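User: Reviewer 2 asked us to show a designed sequence for the structure in our supplementary figure. I'm pasting the structure tokens here. Could you produce the per-position amino acids so we can include them in the response letter?
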């Protein structure tokens, strides 16, 4: 098994592929995670003796690796029992995950928010799988208690589905600090029959739900009719579509509401010109600087296009390691490298025109 793994590991590296995929901790959704994992695996395997079997356990290998190594073993009664037990555990885990996802999703679904239970269930299943991947069985609370996988996955998924609701419904207009109270009002609204629906009944139902959660109502947290009325108005308000015609009776192509709103955005040709200039600038910078100077300038000024301010020097040092696989330089070293690079660029007229 060790021989098979080392041959696979070497072949993967020689082919220029990431060896992080050989680990169960491989996670394509978390930026920078796989680069760190690969460096740790390479460092561990280069340092540890090849005969040390425990190194394979520390790697936390992927299911594919285990399946391939199990296939190399002689089939015994003990091995068969272990494989059957793994299948039973996987089956139980999958059933529990789907039941929990169904429970969370259907409690999160709402007519007033236009949140579909099936869509919510799909999101929760993704959160559950991520939670299983992130779960650390060695973690202990401040009181020294172990956190069970089901507790961690369920709690994390509940929190993330609320974030998903916040960004995929009318709640984008509600402050996050009011998230819990808004969802209680939503639950109260959805639980009342339409012909009995009024602000007073929604308020009473919301306070009933709050009492069940908190145990007791106080003057500070009790829902008032005014608060519930404002929240329901926000949640049930209709939108005006910008493509809606301003004057339907106008002959010819009617003017839309969106066309009547002034737009200060730059024209398309100016955007293209700006992008083209940036590409020329980056090409010129790479041509004039050493590899390290180029990397520092790129990370400090061009790493995140949405960020209008330069990256902090300490952040640049960390990104040199995670993005380019370089050394961990001190803040002062980064400052000196940046200073030398900028001095070079000041001497180049083309760079001055573009930047």
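Assistant: Here is a per-position design you can include in the supplement:
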């Amino acid at each position: 098994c060790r021989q098979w793994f080392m041959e696979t590991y070497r072949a993967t590296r020689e082919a220029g592929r990431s060896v992080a995929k050989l680990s169960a901790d491989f996670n394509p959704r978390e930026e920078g995670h796989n680069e760190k994992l690969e460096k740790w695996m390479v460092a561990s395997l280069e340092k540890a003796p090849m005969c040390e079997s425990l190194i394979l356990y520390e790697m936390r290998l992927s299911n594919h690796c285990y399946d391939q190594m199990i296939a190399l073993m002689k089939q015994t009664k003990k091995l068969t029992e272990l494989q059957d037990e793994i299948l039973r555990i996987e089956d139980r885990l999958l059933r529990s995950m789907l039941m929990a996802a169904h429970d969370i999703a259907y409690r999160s679904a709402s007519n007033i928010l236009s949140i579909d239970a099936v869509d919510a269930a799909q999101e929760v299943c993704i959160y559950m799988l991520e939670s299983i991947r992130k779960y650390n069985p060695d973690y202990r609370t401040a009181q020294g208690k172990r956190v069970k996988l089901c507790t961690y996955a369920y709690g994390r998924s509940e929190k993330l589905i609320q974030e998903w609701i916040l960004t995929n419904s009318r709640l984008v207009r509600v402050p996050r600090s009011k998230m819990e109270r808004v969802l209680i009002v939503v639950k109260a609204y959805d639980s009342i029959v339409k012909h009995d629906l009024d602000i007073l009944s929604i308020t009473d139902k919301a306070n009933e739900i709050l009492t069940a959660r908190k145990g007791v109502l106080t003057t500070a947290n009790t829902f008032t009719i005014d608060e519930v009325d404002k929240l329901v108005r926000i949640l049930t308000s209709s939108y005006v579509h910008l493509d809606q015609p301003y004057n339907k009776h106008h002959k010819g192509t009617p003017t839309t509401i969106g066309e009547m709103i002034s737009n200060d955005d730059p024209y398309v040709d100016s955007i293209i010109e700006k992008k083209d200039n940036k590409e020329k600038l980056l090409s010129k910078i790479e041509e004039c600087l050493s590899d390290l100077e180029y990397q520092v300038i790129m990370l400090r000024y061009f790493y995140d296009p949405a960020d209008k301010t330069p990256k902090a020097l300490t952040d640049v040092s960390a990104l040199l390691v995670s993005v380019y696989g370089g050394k961990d330089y001190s803040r002062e070293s980064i400052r000196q490298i940046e200073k030398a690079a900028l001095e070079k660029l000041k001497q180049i007229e083309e760079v001055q025109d573009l930047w």
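For the response letter, you might also mention the following. Residues 90-173 form one domain. DSSP finds 16 helices and no strands in the chain.
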